[in-house]
Amino acid sequence: MQLELVTKKDFQDLKVELIDEIKKFLSPATEQKEWLKSADVMNMLACSPGTLQNLRVNGTLPFTKMGGTIYYSRKDVMKVLEGNKQNAA
């Protein structure tokens, strides 16, 4: 039978690795998804499903549909927001 010793350094290394993994798991918000679903876009634009549909139909907001799910490029959504900027009067 082979005996392995676990040192204090081994435990410290394990602790650091676990903390890094937990941070990755708890903070996915730092990564922004490139493709957004309708609910995400409605939250960003503060609009209703009908308004979002109008933006799709009139070509204001390009989209991709796969298997019944509609996806929007984050860049396209940001362009719509930037294009509708207004100066405060």
Q: What is the averaged pLDDT score?
A: 87
Number of strands: 3
In helices, the fraction of residues equals 40-55%
Tally of helical runs: 4
* Rg calculated over all Cα atoms: 23 Å
The class by helix and strand makeup works out as alpha+beta
Poorly predicted ranges: none
Strand-residue fraction?
A: 5-15%
Order of helices and strands: HEHHEEH
Strand order of the largest sheet: 1-3-2
The largest sheet is: 3 strands, antiparallel
N-C termini distance: 81 Å
Outline type: elongated
Structure report:
- It is built from four helices and three strands.
- It has helices at residues 8-26, 38-45, 49-57, 74-83, and strands spanning 35-37, 64-66, 69-73.
- A hairpin with a 2-residue loop joins strand 2 and strand 3.
- With 89 residues, the chain is an alpha+beta fold.
- The protein has a three-stranded antiparallel beta sheet with strand order 1-3-2.
- 52% of the residues lie in helices and 12% in strands.
Please outline what is shown here.
The chain is of the alpha+beta class. The protein has 4 helices and 3 strands.
Question: What topology emerges from the helices and strands here?
Answer:
Elements: H1 8-26, E1 35-37, H2 38-45, H3 49-57, E2 64-66, E3 69-73, H4 74-83
Antiparallel strand pairs: 1-3, 2-3
